[in-house]
Amino acid sequence: MLDWENLHYFAVFSHEKSLSAAARKLGVDHATVARRIAVLEASLQLKLVDRRPRAYVLTVDGERIASIADQMVEGAFSIGRIAKAGQQSISGEVSISVPPATAANFIVPHLAKLRQQYPNILLSMIAETRIASLPHGEADIAVRLSRPTEDDLVARKIGMMPFAFYAAPDYLAKTRSEDYVFIALDSSLVQSVQQRWLSAHLADRPIVLRTNSPEIQRIAACAGVGVAVLPYFLGELGGLARVGLGEGGLEREIWLAVHQDLHNTPAVRAVMDFLVDCFTQHGSHGI
Q: N or C: fewer beta carbons within 10 Å in the chain?
């Protein structure tokens, strides 16, 4: 019999295309991934990867096994969702993937209410800027700033998030508009809507700081580093002034997504209703 964990490690490696990326995904070191692949090869008596100086590359047989392994991984995730969907009590762990600043400002302040109403729910909040894979079990529910496109998700628009340019009043007082410098998102978010909006207004003016954290962008702007694109809920906290640059504004939709297999699970439904409540309290344009 094959060791499922070895096959699982190989499937993640084949998807991520590198030992280090697979290790990050699995929460282990790259040597563990390499060892698991070697043990799998030994059990199959089949070479699955070519070990090159800078990379592991799948062999033809490795590609074939990886394709089958992917189907097995999908099946395992499906079994997990079916098991969770079969729980009829409002209890157990429910995981949420949500952007960190959104979580801190709109969900965390209301957690006591969820705790009081559903004391048997354990909430696991994964604060991250990347899009978690709900089909692959990375979270039960996701809050996203764009409409989900996966076929197997159920999604609901729950609000709008407006953005504007912000800078410290002292910075604006002593800097001509043509001399503004900018604080931007880093390369991991270069294709984000707000980054593209910023690029459209740069007019060849320099970017002096890149970060994947809106909170760091805000603090840097408050310190007079430059002008940042921030959601209203961060820009209006104090210490910054809105900057009129270009025409029109930017708004992003806020969507709540869940895998269709979990949509009617009582504990998941309870958390989804709670999340809708969190955003509704701020109004459709208050976030």
A: N
Distance CA 115, CA 144 (A): 23
3-state SS, residue 210: strand
What separation in angstroms does the CA of 251 have from each of 77, 145, 159, 213, 257?
Answer: 35, 10, 10, 19, 19
pLDDT of residue 272: 94
List the one residue out of 91, 87, 119 whose CA is nearest residue 261: 87
- Under 8 Å between Cβ of 258 and 267: no
Flag the least confident range among 5-19, 143-157, 244-258.
Answer: 244-258
d(CA 184, CA 190): 9
3 state SS of 208: strand
- Position 190 pLDDT exceeds 70: no
What angle do the packed helices 4-16 and 30-44 form, to 10 degrees? 120
Instruction: Indicate the burial class of 202 (C-beta count within 10 angstroms; 0-12, 13-18, 19 or more).
Output: middle
CA distance 144 to 126: 13
CB-count burial class (<10 Å; 0-12, 13-18, 19+) for 157: exposed
The span from the CA of 62 to the CA of 50, in Å, is: 9
